[in-house]
Amino acid sequence: MADTSDFRNGFTMNWNNGVWTIIEFQHVKPGKGGAFVRTRLKNVSNGKVVDNTFRAGERVEEVRVERRTFQFLYEDELGLHFMNTDTYEQINLPVDAVEGRKFIKEGANIDILIHGDTEKPLTTEIPMSVELKVTQCDPGLKGDTATGATKPATLESGATVYVPLFINEGDIIRVNTDRGDYITRVSAG
């Protein structure tokens, strides 16, 4: 068991019937009354963020979480299949359990957070940006770069993002996976 003096950013604990990670915390010692700790917590399994206040010295159960790298193999009716890049062990996860699924292509690596005691996958983390090939979009016109207009483009992972008019099929672009935005063209097709 740990207490509030052990709190730090990234600290993971069992609390309120779930596994939570501390995003922010602040020890507060008011002039009157007992000290307390303000925290912002993120639920590891569903991403929900809440604010909570703990009394100083309150005890919580720390959870050991391991970050492991897995390679995305394929998708079928059972879900998404991944292989641990160290042990070659394979696991499958439901499609809705993988955040940012539309930006993952076969062969890409992602991190999966694993509960240290139960070996149960908790959540997935994909890179902040990925490079994907444009598989379908309307052809661009020469000189269409100054207007700032965009058009939809379908990527090799199946995602659709809005890109500048000069992007063509076969181009490789970098995409922000958090917002789903075009960042830059990496190479022309």
Domain unit count: 3
What is the straight-line distance between the termini?
56 Å
Q: What's the average pLDDT?
A: 88
Query: For this structure, what is the CATH class of the largest domain?
Result: Mainly Beta
The structure class reads: mainly beta
Beta content: over 45%
Give the count of helical stretches.
0
Order of helices and strands: EEEEEEEEEEEEEEEE
Beta-strand segment tally: 16
Helix content: under 10%
* Named CATH topology of the largest domain: SH3 type barrels
Major beta-sheet overview: 6 strands, antiparallel
Low-confidence stretches: none
Give a short summary of the structure.
The protein is mainly beta and 189 residues long. The chain has strands at 2-3, 12-15, 18-28, 36-43, 49-55, 59-62, 65-76, 79-84, 90-93, 109-115, 121-125, 129-137, 150-155, 160-164, 172-176, 181-187.
Word description of this protein:
By secondary structure, the protein is mainly β. The chain has 3 domains: 2-62, SH3 type barrels; 65-125, Nucleic acid-binding proteins (OB fold (Dihydrolipoamide Acetyltransferase, E2P)), CATH 2.40.50.140; 129-187, Nucleic acid-binding proteins (OB fold (Dihydrolipoamide Acetyltransferase, E2P)), CATH 2.40.50. It has no helices and 16 strands. It has strands at 2-3, 12-15, 18-28, 36-43, 49-55, 59-62, 65-76, 79-84, 90-93, 109-115, 121-125, 129-137, 150-155, 160-164, 172-176, 181-187. The strands form 3 sheets. A 6-stranded antiparallel sheet has the order 1-6-2-3-4-5, with no helix packed on it. β3 (18-28) and β4 form a beta hairpin.
